[in-house]
Design a protein that fits this description.
The protein contains 13 helices and 18 strands. The chain is an alpha/beta fold. Strand 3 and strand 4 form a beta hairpin. The strands form five sheets. A seven-stranded mixed beta sheet has the order 2-18-9-1-8-6-7, sandwiched between helices. A four-stranded antiparallel beta sheet has the order 12-13-15-14.
Length: 362
């Protein structure tokens, strides 16, 4: 177990590298020189985010076109969840700065909010100014100042959702209803110079969650995203470069690895099932953890997990007092995070933390 790399080998550094290439400046450290050297200069970048496609998952038989263009592996931000890492990419800053530090996020009043759907654990909508949640200006806004237009290409169902408002308050939205339309839309957006095209594929993540990496559905979705990447890279104009990566990887949890718990009174659990965050009565939670297949981690041992210090005030207000890091093959299910899934993520294992860096040019 180690903290993610935020100084040159992580997703935040990839975002900063591309920001520097496009506008000549950046907020967070750029990629290490050897990683940066794998990315050609271009006037337009097509950034493809394969949700849930960890670097180690490229060993799948259907991932050949992705393996071919793999240049290296990077670290996702902690926790290894979609909302955390999409916020990292949208701002080109680590969670310690942008403040979206977890999937189930605790507010200072101890209300816990699901940051995909933006409702609390009682099922009530969380009322906030979504478009002002992340720091401003975000990456698309900073690019726009320099005349770089951002296009966001994602499934139709995401358009206008609270999460989309949190992440993409600017840029041109290009929703796709049919999977086969995604690449043509991206290539159309990339046909002009001075553009940043963000293309989002949720398919591998959904299949891994539902049926696991050994399933036929997963194999089918891997084949789809790999062929989509091949079609995209084959159609790139001369002024564009394609960058592919992911927000996290996956681990399959066997049925017997799902441990259901009910916390003692006064214990607040949040975070996710692979790394359960603790607030409230920490002593009672630690007693409970002694009988669970987890590693107890005090807050003092979590320095650097969310990024370098100083930690912004919004991020500091939402961090846990301790955490229970689930053992290999274990998911801890508790009120608010009780859905049994085959594929899981959120922890710091290499399978969850390491994501690929794919690069292709015409």
């Amino acid at each position: 177990m180690r903290a993610p790399d935020y100084i040159g080998g992580g997703l935040v550094n990839l975002a900063s590298e591309l920001e520097f290439r496009l506008r000549g400046d950046h907020l967070s450290p750029r990629l290490y020189p050897d990683l940066a050297a794998t990315i050609p200069d271009a006037s337009t970048y097509v950034f493809v985010l394969f949700d849930g496609l960890g670097d180690l998952q490229l060993s799948h038989p259907n991932a050949g076109p992705l393996r071919k263009d793999r240049k290296a592996a990077l670290d996702a931000a902690f926790s290894t969840q979609t909302t955390v890492n999409l916020a990292t990419l949208a701002t080109a800053t680590p969670p310690s700065v942008h403040g979206l530090v977890g999937y189930l996020l605790r507010w200072p009043d101890d209300r816990v909010v699901n940051t995909i759907w933006w409702f609390d654990l009682a099922g009530q909508p969380f009322e906030t100014d979504y478009r002002a949640f992340l720091p401003t200006p975000n990456l698309p806004e900073r690019l726009a100042v320099e005349g770089i237009e951002t296009f966001v290409i994602q499934p139709t169902g995401y358009e206008g959702s609270p999460l989309s408002d949190v992440l993409f308050r600017t840029g041109t939205a290009v929703p796709y209803q049919n999977m086969e339309d995604a690449v043509p839309f991206a290539l159309e957006a990339a046909s002009q110079r001075d553009r940043f095209v963000f293309l989002y594929f949720p398919h591998v993540d959904a299949a891994a969650h539902a049926e696991g990496q050994e399933s036929d559905t997963y194999a089918s979705m891997m084949e789809f995203v790999a062929s989509s990447w091949a079609s995209l890279t084959a159609g790139l104009p001369d002024h564009a470069v394609a960058i592919g990566t992911a927000d996290h990887g996956h681990v399959d949890i066997p049925p017997e690895g799902n441990i259901h718990i009910t916390p003692p009174e006064g214990v607040i659990l949040h975070g996710d099932s692979r790394c359960v965050w603790v607030a409230g009565d920490v002593a009672a939670a630690r007693t409970m953890a002694a009988d669970l297949p987890v590693r107890w981690v005090d807050r003092s041992e979590m320095t650097g997990w969310w990024g370098p210090e100083p930690i912004s005030a919004p991020a500091a207000d939402r961090l846990p007092q301790a955490a229970m890091l689930a053992d290999d093959g274990i998911a801890i299910l508790y009120p608010g995070d009780e859905m049994v899934l085959v594929g899981n993520h959120g922890g710091l294992s290499p399978q969850e933390l390491r994501v690929p860096l794919l690069v292709a040019q015409p």
